[in-house]
Design goal:
The structure holds two protein chains of two kinds.
Chain A lengths: L1 E5 L10 E4 L4 E4 L9 H7 L13 H28 L7 E3 L2 E2 H38 L1
Antiparallel strand pairs in A: 1-2, 2-3, 4-5
Helix pairs in contact in A: 2-3
Chain B lengths: L6 H22 L5 H6 L6 H12 L2 H14 L1 H28 L4 H5 L6 H34 L3 H49 L14 E7 L2 E5 L5 E8 L2 E8 L2 E9 L4 E6 L1 E5 L5 E3 L2 E2 L8 E9 L2 E3 L7 H10 L1 E12 L2 E12 H4 L14 H17 L4 H4 L8 H30 L1 E4 L7 H9 L1 H38 L6 H25 L5 H15 L1 H9 L5 H20 L2 H6 L16 H18 L1 H7 L2
Antiparallel strand pairs in B: 1-2, 1-6, 3-4, 4-5, 5-6, 7-8, 7-13, 8-9, 10-11, 10-12, 10-14, 12-13
The chains are: A alpha+beta, B alpha+beta.
Amino acid sequence: MASGYNFVSHDMTVTPLRFDTNRGLKYRDSSTQPTISTEEIYIMAHGPATDWGEDKASEYKAKIGIYFFIFYSIVYSVFVVINVISPMSMATIVFAGLNLAVVYGIGLIILAIIMGLIYNYMCTKKENELNAKEEVQQ
Amino acid sequence: MIYEPSLTAIFFFIFFVIAVIWLSSFLAKRTKTSDGYFAAGGRIHWGVNGIAFAGDYLSAASFLGICGMIAFFGYDGFLYSIGYLAGWIVALFVVAEPLKRFGKYTLTDALNYKFNSKGIQLTAAASTLIVSICYLVPQMVGAGDLVTPLLGFPHYIGVIFVGAIVIFIVATAGMTSTTYVQFIKGGLLITFSTILTIYILTNGISLKPSEEHRDLMSIGAIVQNGDVVEIDHTGYSIADEYRHHDQHFIKLRTDGRYSWWSLEQIDEQKAVLHQALSVTHKPDGRVYYNGAPREERRFFQVGHATKIIVDGEEVDKTGPLGPFKYLSTIESSEILIFSRVLFIDGDDRVSLWYQNPTPGSELLRPGMMLNLGEDSDFMSKLNFISLMLALFFGTSALPHILIRYYTVRSPKDARKSTIVAIAAIGFFYILTLFLGLGAMVSGVLDLESSNMAAPLLAKSIGVFIFSTITAIAFATVLGTVAGLIIASSGAVAHDLIVNYLGIKLSDKGQVTAGRISAIGVGCFAIVLGILFKGMNVSFLVGLAFAVAASANLPAILMLLFWKKTTAKGIASSIVVGIVFSLGIILLSPSTYIGVYGLPAAQAPIPLDNPGIISIPLSFLTLIVVSLLTQKKREMTTV
């Protein structure tokens, strides 16, 4: 699961932090890795610019992110397909004197905003739920 | 047409430049570390970052280019708005949080987070530089184009001026000053675009959009066997003619001046000549506008409604309209747009724009610019799919956009800032439809430059709003160029010098290397901006999107979602993405016409947009190479 290292650069010699790709967590693993020098830090500094705590909701967020992405991709693909196969049907008046092209186009933009807000709500709720539990347990 | 420099515009411009220089100098004192220089210390608030995203993303291509395309071609321009915005969905749902979690300063960091591969360092840095430079050149060319007519400077002065200011912004405070310049620019752009849209809706649509509006002339004519033999105006005489497919153009002479007219045949004997606008390039370099030198101002602004239908009734003027009513009125009305023909008349090169009254229903559906109608073929449809694919996948693979995720504190903030960006950018893109259509019917279009539609619309309202929009348009270039230079600077200093070449630098040394790289890339951009003067800027932006979508996105997605991805797989897919996307574009019909000046038929590849080939090919390469290099990966994975 763990597949890479990040290094902090505050001290002259530091312990490498093992990175968990699923949990987004950095934790010390000094038993298996040697300490490294500051010179190495300069060369191998790939880790995040800022530090943050464990996020137990990352798996959930990645999963619903994919679902949301697939849903939007389908709606977007249908738009492209209609334009290609039947462009004249885009001229059909569908709402308030507006044609399908305008309604679908503006709809795609508004849908992106709405889905973004729903996604953020769901992610925040799950973060609060799972990460708060962790804090209570600690 | 001739643009007169406005003192108010110059004042706003200077004020903005001084404000930006002061801000950069102020923030420079706080930029001492590489974290601070490349990632603003990861301390930017997500709300500020979201608007800065908008400031970074809404380049001159969005503000000037899309508004202009909608003003000239209607709905087809709006398709770009839809595609550009849809790309943010990939960024939000798939890329934002993982990228923030795995990366540090650059895209290369994120792609290389679990491999520490030299191959990824080199290819990803090269991809960053290629995409950024493809994006930089049109911004610099656009800066020169913008500053020249509005402030009265020569093109190269405009490019040098913009380049020098951006180098100052980036070299002083790096990502921190870049962020705040983009934040200010994003906020101003959206605010004033909203004001312009409110003005358009309040003003409504009129057959005579302004007091200065000039009606184009029409003259009766007698036709025999398809040739014009007599015209119903004593001041004009027939000088020449030109036929283009089913179009027939007549050259008339009056007072020693020549002008072109399009012929509309009424019956076998009667016809009407409609005044056209033309620009004639003489072999000795002289240019005539409607048969006269530029200074005589005979090449005027155009674009208005020729028939307005509201609730089934024809009117001269609508009065204030709501947003839906405005669009439905355009839908049911008729708009005078202009179609362009290029031909050789003797030794002269003629660009001719003829009147083409078009039903609003045609303008508000796809097909005016992108060939999707009845006369479309397989390749035109494939081009459209490919374009929409590149727009969808290109956004979340643009290095200068992705590095903005490193400026916030956490993945959660990265997500929130993306949502702010989607809301701000989405709102702006909806406004582009009104701005473009507003310019289309307001009699403000300069047929020589579609990019000037939005500033000229502002000019028709008043000097203050025009000056502000000019300053914002300038800020638009500054904000995007600053983002591109900081991305390139990170690729050179952090990815290539420190990581790939392994040159050991202290933290302060990395900042110095970043600053020197920014100056180097900035100077290079200035040179390219001058050399590429007159180049089709949208071509280069399309190139950047296509290369980003082909080279970077397959690597990002597969790294996140396929456990068997290897370093060699990523590096190979980046190389294949770059080579095939660039190769197809360089051998495409558009490049043959626009860049080489050769007939499109000679182009070996009949496709303009490479995404549909290069993106799947890049994915395939990554999968095949990763599968072939599995053993090695297992051995090197700890």
